[in-house]
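Show me a record, fold above all:
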Amino acid sequence: MSLSITKPLWALGLMSGTSADGIDAALIQTDGLAITNFGPTHYISYPKNLKSQILNTYGCPPGSEKDSLEQSITEYHIEAVFSLLEKANLEPSNIDAIGFHGQTLFHKPPARVGEKGETYIIGNGPLLASRTGITVVDQLRLNDIVNGGQGAPLVPVFHQALAKDLPKPIAILNIGGVANVTWIGDSQEKLLAFDTGPGNGLMDDLVREHSNLLWDEEGKIAASGCVHEGLIKKWLSHPYFTRKSPKALDRQTFKSFLDEARTLSFENGVATLTAFTARTLEKALAFFPEKPSQWLVAGGGAHNLTLLNMMQECLEMEVQKASDKGWDGDALEAQAFGFLAVRSLRGLPLTFPGTTGVAYPLTGGRVCKPVSM
């Protein structure tokens, strides 16, 4: 569906990543090209039992539990929408569209050109639209996958809009459960993106196994441990790191590495997994057309000071948080899905040859109009 939109729209973006911690919601005003304004943001946590359900279903298409899990996930997204609207003192009628990522359970990108991958993201877009009274754009990855793309990452075109006035080339790294980078050159066509490797996923899993913490706060556990260089060397020999970009990962791709980290002491295991996330950036550099003049980090990993220090050491240059530029690093992906929803309504491309490997720029998304319940 394509609409002729010349004025900026208010969109509400929703993002629940592979860490399965909860839902980020954010308001953004845009015409799908430029960003006119940012509104408030909101976060709600998934309850422990729902988070466990999600994590237990990763890695394969869900079975009979799919319907009840999708219902629960959608209900929490509905709650996130109304909580954010209340915070912003807005009514549903003030919002033009919701960009609904949904919850990824399974993502298998194509291994080579000519193949088609699979992705399974659950979330009931029609129910969300009907319960909120707002047009919802969901399944934003699907058209890319159907046309032979990696299906990820989707955020690069938003990064490009955010960074339009910053010196180029620039690298923007988002560290969620998986880490992905956007390299932006000095023209609209110079856009490259791919998953660099594990983000917080492996280290978070280990931390949850051995403590009451959900993650390594500020990287304090990693800072108290020693890095096992032998394991780092072995892990970096994985064929993914020499595979040509664009390329994307499933959260479970490196699951066996977590088993090996468990053979170390808890602190050393966390330190080694943290260092692994940092060292993958050295491998990523080989795919950039030009060395970036600066690195900006967003997502949960931006709060891990040990990880940031390790990254600076690997890259031999300063690494800044996205928040240093006035961006909301924690809500960046939610804002991006609001931006992408408006682009979808306009029929503008979401993915590109340099970001997902599709043959030509592609739009995407399913438009769900509200109906009376």
In short: The first strand starts at residue 9 and ends at 16.
